[in-house]
Amino acid sequence: KEGLDTETIGKSVHCFSEVDSTNNYAKTLAQKGCDDGTVVLAERQTQGRGRLGRSWDSTDKKGIWMSIVLRPAVGLEDVQIITLAASVAVASALKKAMDVNAGIKWPNDIVLDGKKVCGILTEMSMEMERVNYLVLGIGMNFSQQESEFPKEIRDRATSLGIYLKEKHGLDISGFRRSHLVKTILSELEEVYDTIKEGKVGVIIEEWKKYSVTLGKEVLINYKEEQYIGTAQDIDQNGRLIVRLSDGTVREVLSGEVSVRGL
Ligand code: BTN
After folding, report:
1. Residue ranges lining ligand 1, Cβ < 6 Å
2. What's the N-to-C CA distance of the chain in angstroms?
């Protein structure tokens, strides 16, 4: 908590050397009524979870595994914007803290030269059509070597350490993980305030600045269905607008969809 310059995000921080999943722990705290902006951090997770029911490899102590409980006064339609805003916060924190230019692959994967360095898992609890709480789970690969990733994901995943070495000849040991964590939390507070002020358009514009998806061919996997189209835009609710080759336009909501750049 030392040196944290935020008012809401990180007012209360829970640190662990090991948990099953910081998202699980954060949910338990949320159900007990913890404050808006409560942060859970762990050195390692034994059962890290990813989007779409996947697992998230985080048993090493070389990443940033954290979850943030948010209690925004919004309805379901704004949850997607908050998720996009979280990816904007991470991308801008990477720039500020480490001068790294990251991109965002819709909806909220953070990529470096096309490889994923960070994923975000948003989970929520609704009550009477309102959001009771949200848990934003952020998983950032920090100092892993390539050989430490499972073989199946090596061509798609990277860490800040791998990227800085390859791209700039820099050693990750010269960077502090805690400094990046603090910067992410303060950037998160900034976008959260923007959302509370109702300035959704600002978030969308920011997101577009980092987007590596718009204008590209995408393959959409939705349940049993697969289709290819061009990602044209995102709308005010954060849905991806995809134009198929026959000219039909689809609006894609992130929840059950995986997108691949082609
Ligand atoms: C994705 O599939 O891209 C999302 C990955 C999210 C991983 C993070 S690590 C911290 C938090 N706890 C979890 O169990 N998952 C998220």
Report:
1. 21-23, 45, 48-51, 54, 56, 58, 65-67, 109, 119-121, 137-139
2. 42
